[in-house]
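The protein record filed here.
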Amino acid sequence: MFMRKRIYLDNSATTAVAPEVLEAMLPYFTEEIGNASSIHSFGQKAKAAVDSARRKVAELIAAEPNEIVFVSGGTEADNLAIKGIAQAHSARGRHIITSKIEHPAVINTCAALEKQGFAVTYLPVYENGIVRVDDLRDAIRDETILISVMHANNEIGAIQPIEEIGAVVKEIRASGHRHIYFHTDAVQSAGKIPIDVNRLGVDLLSISGHKIHAPKGIGALYVRKGVKLASQQHGGHHERDRRAGTENVAGIVGLGKAAELARSHLAEQIEHTRSLRDYLEAGAQERIPYVQVNGDPVRRLPNISNMSFRFIEGEGILISLDLKGIAVSTGSACSSGSLEPSHVLAALGLPPEIARGSLRFSLSRYNTREEIDYLLEVLPEVVARLRKISPLYKRATDSAPVEI
């Protein structure tokens, strides 16, 4: 029986669980059943496994193990960081700075705080998708208590100037005038590029397991030693009173193993995914007219490519590719179902008709050159067919040449 090729190019939405990760987790679904808070031998084995995973996650970002708080994923990490700082330090100020291209887990959390009387400044980005540090400096007020800017964008891969922002925060603290906390959502960058929390100068950093070949439902928040944070869950004294609730031991073990694998194979994974991404972009632009790559061409993650195919809808391309066995996305999985163009592409200044024709291709260590070859064989046919029935394409090509 003929088996259709199945190619997964939506790794920024979620990744396959690595075989090594599954193997590490399996005992904690079967014989190792202990609660990590129990004092008997079953519990102590579970606690030792959690402590080992905490160390591995800390090593991935050059932190200390006791600065890692295990949570359910990136969304909870962002909520705990932003709400936790806002609630713990509101007496000193009620102003937060973030950017217009943040993940919904940050934007919607800030919007919820606005309803509680906090003021939020949303920094613009420009055509390269990167925040300008001068804009951030200008936005800082006496009542600013938190800056939250993502490390790398989930739709276009643009890497933000986190180290430079961290230097601004350090400078302000050194002046003794005010104390501002700095959070970054590193859900897309952790395990994809090197991260050193001390070099970046961040106080809080969010990680999600299912973006680095661990299972869904587990993540971590780095909280720098000494940072006061209001817990968002009430219960026991788990996670050093940062996050109440019995630890997900199997998930934590999986995240620890995934972090260990990412750290040990980081250089080769960067080279592998960057090579595939560049090959894909060159092939698409060579074979298909009216294609543009969105975001900064250099300062971006090695595994993400966001391209606009003019005169057609990205959703139509996505569905057509899916019928050919190829999975891609039109943007953030957490924004799927929205009829509005991507807020990230809108922030870049792309017109709605171009933004709607965009696709995100996101790669992992498991993708191959042969898979990209198959995509490049199928994609031009799909685009040509959709453009053939597009009135926008007909009008444009019947008139003057189109600027890309």
About this structure: The chain has 15 helices and twelve strands.
